[in-house]
Amino acid sequence: MIEIRPMREGDMDVVEEMGTVSYPPNYYEGSASFRSKVSGGGCLVGLVDGVLAGYLMSFPYVLGIPYPINEVYVPAGHPECHYIHDLCVSSCARGLGLGTALAEVAMSGRPMVALTAVMGSEGFWEGLGFRRQFGLDYYGGRATYMLRVLRQGSLGWASCLMSASACPNRIASDGSIDGSVVV
Ligand SMILES: CC(C)(COP(=O)(O)OP(=O)(O)OC[C@H]1O[C@@H](n2cnc3c(N)ncnc32)[C@H](O)[C@@H]1OP(=O)(O)O)[C@@H](O)C(=O)NCCC(=O)NCCS
């Protein structure tokens, strides 16, 4: 069973370890950088059968600018979108849908979501509705800035966004999560 819930202070050691082993050294995020982003309000962990197996870090940010790596989080004064800074699934839990579940919960209720795709993950993000905007060299690696913009339909934003079955009654209008959701 997959469960998604907000990241807590007690998760940070596992999250940091997972990030450090999953990314090459040029994408290393120090402890202060990791921990500071939890205050951004969009950090989640994913559990598979009760075991923490993935995480996602996101926060409001400005459009068109990749967020720096290994910097202490400072909230943007005039955010224009929601930005997914880091999505990581433990190598032994990949292919189970956990990355998709984390991203869908982070994106829900947010009409404009941006990110910088690294390590050849563009295809994964395209599968979630993101479109390539521009390529760049990101800390020595090839990366692509991507954007997902939803148009408001007759049933409203939420109808376009939700596919996680238990989400609607657990996600507030500002996108924050009440408790955990099972997807
Ligand atoms: C990318 C990542 C988060 C995907 O997580 P996951 O839980 O394995 O993904 P899912 O099981 O939800 O896969 C959903 C779909 O995306 C595809 N997919 C997974 N990783 C992919 C990748 N790197 N490139 C293209 N497609 C990918 C899967 O094959 C699957 O396709 P399907 O629906 O046709 O079967 C995970 O591989 C990871 O943590 N990689 C290392 C860190 C990383 O690259 N993060 C993204 C940085 S921007």
| Share in helix | 10-25%
Q: What is the strand arrangement across the widest sheet?
A: 6-7-5-4-3-2-1-8
Instruction: Indicate how many domains the architecture comprises.
Output: 1
CATH fold label: Aminopeptidase
User: What's the count of strands?
Assistant: 8
User: Overall pLDDT, averaged?
Assistant: 86
Could you tell me how far the N terminus lies from the C terminus, measured between alpha carbons in angstroms?
Answer: 8 Å
Strand content: 25-35%
CATH class: Alpha Beta
The computed structural class is alpha+beta
H-E order: EHHEEEHEHEEHE
Low-confidence stretches: 155-177
Radius of gyration: 15 Å
Classify the oligomer: single chain
Characterization of this structure:
This protein is an alpha+beta fold and 183 residues long. The protein is 21% helix and 31% strand. It has 5 helices and 8 strands, in the order E-H-H-E-E-E-H-E-H-E-E-H-E. The chain has an 8-stranded mixed sheet with strand order 6-7-5-4-3-2-1-8, sandwiched between helices. Strand 4, helix 3 and strand 5 form a beta-alpha-beta unit. It is globular, with a radius of gyration of 15 Å. The relative contact order is 0.18. The model is unreliable at 155-177 (pLDDT under 50). The structure holds coenzyme A (COA). Coenzyme A binds at residues 22, 87-89, 94-100, 117-121, 123-124, 127.
